Amino acid sequence: MIKCKQATQMLSEKLDRTLSAKEKINLAMHTAICTPCRQFGKQMETIRELSKSYTKAKKPDEK
Amino acid sequence: MSNANLSVEMDSSAAVNVFQDAVFIEELRTQMLKFAKLQVRDNQLAEAAVQEAMFSAYQNIDRFARQAAFKTWVFSILKNKIIDLLRKEKRHTAASQLEEGPNLSGEALIEHLFEENGHWQKDERPKKWDQPEHGVENEHFWRIFDACLDALPAKYGRLFMMREFLEMDTPEICHNEDVSVSSLNVTLYRARLRLRECLEDHWFQKEKS
Ligand SMILES: [Zn+2]
């Protein structure tokens, strides 16, 4: 069983490479029972989306 | 670029209005400059890249009619210019030569966040982030986001921006920066850990309290 430390690293690396089948299973089993890591995974994706919209951010006066 | 030049042969095109809207162009230029300076630490080079990107956009303006599309497009030109600059800059500041920086970054941060048994420290467990989309509209949010990016150690910031802002792929970053794939992945992990913490502490949680 992997720990949060490894799980969070996989949740980040998931954005940079394809995880192996074994990693995917381990990660799925971990996040199924670990709320903080589940949040962490969502936040990794949010950070990616935020970075993408960085250059599209609007000033309040520019509707 | 003078207004006289602008109006010569394109007066019928709606796209020209983009360049005639001085306020829009000035705001866009400011935003582009900020973006370029984050990644290219040499201000003059950053300004030159923005200038060139604007000029390329101007030369090909007939392809664009809407301001929103224009902005995305001109930023994509700028991104390519920045990638070129970073390639040239390689010898001087490859990420492999940059410091990881003081304070809680690498191992120290990980020790701070996780218990010895590998689980989250109670206080450090990620909290739910409410409606980040709402935050995107908010100018204050982007100030926090910038501050959190700036607070990253130089090496983290450089690799993170290559991946997330310039959308460079792994082989390209590794080649350019003389880092191994695993070292890149670990650095990106640490950068995101730190950025996540910073955003949560200064924005997502603060909003609630
Ligand atoms: Zn966990």
From TrEMBL, chain A:
- Give start and end of each Putative zinc-finger domain: 4-38
Q: Name one Pfam family in it.
A: zf-HC2
Name of this protein: Putative zinc-finger domain-containing protein
Q: What is the lineage of its organism?
A: Bacteria, Pseudomonadati, Pseudomonadota, Gammaproteobacteria, Oceanospirillales
